[in-house]
Design goal:
The chain has 710 residues and is α/β, with parallel strands linked by helices. A hairpin with a 2-residue loop joins strand 10 and strand 11. The protein is built from 30 helices and eleven strands.
């Protein structure tokens, strides 16, 4: 399922050295500490991406040149501790403990150093060639937090460097420190974490038995600790690294059983040992930070706490979320129409020019129709409709992400999702689904539990993607709003209500699946509320446009080309006096009438499987009896056409309901197959929203007909 963990040798990760004396440096750290900013700032364009051997977890490598040698940086997935709960955390842990890195740089957040030291201390137990880079020193100063880095270096016994990762001058100090750093020749040092005496005694018995079987980079104390703890996710890797004969040797097995029995009698049974070890680590980090960190509440810190109370408050969180959602949709609707109309006119002019060119070249009529109306018109129409809203929506979404609001949405929605036996992180993947359901499905990788990840994947398409917004906006504006004084605010309000219906249905279906197909208790997870940050507008725009807008647009255009060709063929192939398109629509008409629609509408949904953006154009094409995909040039023109073919406000409501809940596009279904590995889950992801949509349309239509008869 999506993220998988295999047993491939992490040391065999292909390292792209430029010179023989280049060193491999692993970048580790908690999520949201600026680790990727450090990586990108140091490596620039010298980066390579791929997958870890045997795993579908992405890795990134980059190269930075120091004064004496070069360094290959390996950007590890963010993790809070070496007690891994997901495939990404297992990758980070295994590479730190068994990988081929020559150095480890742990990036910490200066504004919450105590929590970050938890990971630093755990890594120091496993290896000694560690450096600490304390990032976000400028934010710490703004919040009135002053870490004593010299004292921290003394307490940890390793080099510590302060950074502001967004400043290249500050980043240059890290390669310089790597040039001068000479790691200790031995792992024998004062342990940074002191456990209760019974645990220390047990470790003293086990360490001599492991020393002969470990390399210079492996700590026998850490290995003994992991064997005592019995971490099932690590035992397989330990067995592979040390050899089965080592772990199964009678001497070690007897000593391990004896140590566990003694710990059990002294009040440390296996079920509480992990908590005891974590508590000792937390106390060690707390003790270090008491002297290292000086905190004076600044006006900025007080302001941030006041904003947090407002955004996550019991009575203010949900109203503010709704207002923000309404504002995002209003901005998207208000400012997307003009560039969309401009692109449409430009593309129409391009098609006219190409038509004149083909006529001049005396191309046959069927070839002109195939090229212009079959292959080009649909993808160009998709671009003109999708690009402007996405170019507005995705930067707004990225802005909320960069400023730190999306984790607060996850915090607010954690309780209702937990009540559905799901994970609060599902709220983040649901938000990603508003841009693209396929991207939302891929985003479900952040959920650790396989069961909860599957819940999020199967229900992601219950929220409408960007491709459905143009049709929703058009139908709401034409049939439900009109041209009154409040029409400008009413359309975003109704669209927001549609979105809320999608969110509520997501939770309802999640709860249904959690009690039927995917039973199980919700898991716990660490949900961090990162500090509010000022986003970098240039990087924000580039990331939202290149990584999201153009990516989604390119995929939609790719699937729109064969769809346009199919539609052109169906409209131009005739059986008797009617086209194949009309024959199919007539065949579906009796079934569609039960749900308040007609055969043309239902056929448009079927043919719109490659891309939701082409559903309305298919409808208008069929009504106009044209041999090519047609777009109405104004909402008034579209209203006249649809009304002439029997549409009423009730028809529009049925279509809106089915737009909200029907099978996802083919790209999303293929993504579900890729993430889950099974076609049956893709089938279920298509059937669930379709059944819900048909039931809602049936209930609405039949209730309305019953009321009209009374």
């Amino acid at each position: 399922m999506g993220l998988t963990k295999g047993s491939a040798d992490l040391g065999e990760l292909r390292i792209r050295r430029k010179h023989e004396n280049d060193l491999v440096v692993a970048l580790a750290g908690n999520p949201n500490v600026g680790k990727s900013t450090v990586f990108n700032g140091l490596t620039g364009m010298h980066q390579h991406t791929g997958n870890w051997p045997g795993k579908t977890v992405a890795n990134a490598q980059g190269y930075v040149q120091g004064s004496h040698r070069g360094y290959v940086l390996v950007d590890l997935p963010g993790t809070y501790s070496l007690l891994a709960h997901s495939a990404e955390e297992e990758v980070a842990r295994d590479y730190l403990c068994f990988g081929a890195a020559d150095r480890v740089v742990v990036v910490c957040d200066a504004t919450c150093l105590e929590r970050n030291l938890h990971l630093v201390l755990q890594i120091l137990e496993a290896r000694s060639d560690v450096l600490v880079a304390v990032n976000l020193m400028d934010e710490a100063k703004r919040k009135g937090i002053t870490p004593d880095l010299a004292l921290l270096q003394e307490r940890l016994g390793i080099p510590v460097l302060g950074l502001v990762a967004q400043k290249k001058k500050s980043l240059a100090a890290l390669p310089a420190l790597l040039d001068t750093y000479v790691p200790p020749s031995s792992l024998a040092k004062v342990p940074p974490i002191h456990y209760p005496p019974p645990i220390e005694a047990a470790l003293a018995d086990l360490i001599p038995l492991l020393q002969a079987h470990t390399t210079e980079r492996q700590s026998p104390r850490w290995l003994a600790l992991k064997l005592l703890e019995g971490d099932t996710s690590l035992l397989g890797e330990l067995q592979w690294q040390l050899g089965e004969e080592v772990l199964s040797s009678p001497t070690l097995v007897t000593a391990l059983d004896t140590a566990r029995e003694r710990l059990k009698t002294e009040g440390f049974p296996p079920e509480t040992l992990a908590d005891t070890l974590a508590t000792a680590t937390t106390l060690a980090a707390e003790t270090i930070c008491k002297d290292v960190v000086c905190e004076n509440a600044s006006s900025h810190s007080k302001r941030d706490r006041w904003i947090d109370r407002l955004l996550t408050g019991k009575y203010t969180a949900y109203p503010l979320m709704l207002l923000l959602l309404l504002a995002v949709f209003w901005i998207t609707i208000r400012f997307a129409n003009i560039p969309s109309a401009f692109l449409s006119q430009c593309f129409e002019g391009l098609l006219e020019w190409l038509t004149r060119l083909l006529i001049h070249l005396q191309a046959p009529e069927w070839l002109m129709g195939l090229l212009i109306d079959g292959l080009l018109r649909v993808p160009l129409w998709v671009i003109s409709v999708m690009l402007p809203p996405m170019a507005i929506f995705f930067p707004l979404f990225t802005f909320l992400e960069d400023v730190g609001y999306l984790p607060r949405i996850a915090y607010n929605l954690d309780r209702p999702f937990h009540a559905c036996r799901a994970c609060g992180k599902q709220s983040l993947t649901m938000c990603m689904g508003f841009g693209c359901n396929a991207a939302g499905v891929v985003g479900c990788r952040i959920i650790d539990s396989p069961r909860e990840r599957m819940l999020a994947i199967l229900t992601n398409s219950f929220v409408p993607c960007n491709g459905r917004f143009p049709a929703l906006i058009s139908l709401i504006s034409i049939f439900l709003v009109g041209s009154g004084a409040f029409s400008g605010a009413l359309a975003p309000l109704l669209l927001t209500l549609c979105i809320l219906l999608g969110v509520l249905m997501t939770m309802a279906m999640t709860k249904l699946l959690a009690h039927t197909v995917l039973r199980g208790a919700p898991s716990s997870f660490a949900l961090e509320l990162p500090p509010f940050r000022r986003p970098q507008l240039g990087r924000l725009i580039l990331r939202s446009l290149l990584d999201r807008t153009l990516f989604v647009l390119g995929r939609s255009v790719t699937v729109a080309i064969p769809a346009g060709l199919l539609i052109w063929l169906m409209t131009n192939l005739t059986i008797g006096e009617m086209s194949l398109l009309h024959h199919c629509a007539d065949l579906l008409d009796p079934f569609a009438r039960l749900f308040g629609m007609d055969g043309v509408i239902l056929l448009a949904f079927v043919l719109g499987l490659p891309a939701n953006e082409i559903i309305l154009p298919i409808i208008t094409t069929t009504y106009l009896c044209e041999g090519t995909l047609m777009e109405c040039e104004s909402l008034l023109e579209m209203q006249t056409l649809l009304s002439a073919n029997g549409w009423t406000w009730a028809t529009a409501v049925s279509v809106i309901l089915f737009l909200l809940f029907h099978w996802p596009c083919s790209t999303t279904l293929l993504t579900v197959k890729k993430e889950t590995g099974k076609w049956r889950w893709s089938l279920l992801a298509a059937v669930l929203p379709t059944v819900v949509g048909l039931l809602l349309c049936l209930l609405f239509t039949q209730s309305l007909r019953l009321l009209q008869q009374i």
